[in-house]
Amino acid sequence: PLNFSDIVSETKKDKVLQKVVTYLKMGWPAEVEQDLVPYKRRADELHVEREVVLWGYRVVIPTKMRTTVLNELHAYHMGICKVKALARSYVWWPDIDGGIERTAKSCEPCNKTKDNPPKSTLIPWEWPAKPWQRIHIDYLGPLANRYYLILVDSHSKWLEAFETKSMSSLTTISILRQVFARFGLPDILVSDNYSAFEAEQFQHFLKKNGIKFKSGAPYNPKTNGG
């Protein structure tokens, strides 16, 4: 497993990240090498904390450690969408999405199962007319004694992941309140039949906020217009 001291050590050895650190302190030149372009585009959002480069709250992983991070993210074979959601909550580097996709495509267990015929016909959801009209939620885990609430806007495909110690209806409501405070209330919320989503307390929360509830399969791009 990765630890903070390893990231600090590798950041100091990473030639690209050391240039990023220097430019963040001294100012960016008008022209930079190609491998620095993604960092310059995010210059206003990058900062250095305890000798590690951060993009917002995400840790910028040094080059040498990226394969390890990709393998750890993929270890539970969650699928590309969920891995991207999880990664976006904690780490970043240029082309991280491409790395996640390549790791999944080279995974033998995933390749064996991805083309299995579905047990039943998939019925696509109707494409939403606007962002945040319909959202899908699903719990992932446990991973290292933690769970993750994955939320997807079915129009924009925007994903968010929230780490939590519990999958209770109270925890779910608390997280959704934070999300709705930022993005507003959706028209429809879709989830699987997990007990927390079916609980009276959770259903009352949705009804009180005028949100229609629909149960179905956990988020799947093939059935969500993706």
From TrEMBL:
Pfam families: Integrase_H2C2, rve. InterPro entries: Integrase_cat-core, Integrase_H2C2, Retrovirus_Pol_polyprotein, RNaseH-like_sf, RNaseH_sf. Residues 127-226 form the Integrase catalytic domain. GO terms for biological process: DNA integration. SUPFAM superfamilies: Ribonuclease H-like. GO terms for molecular function: nucleic acid binding; RNA-directed DNA polymerase activity. It is an enzyme of class 2 (transferase). This is RNA-directed DNA polymerase. It comes from Lygus hesperus.
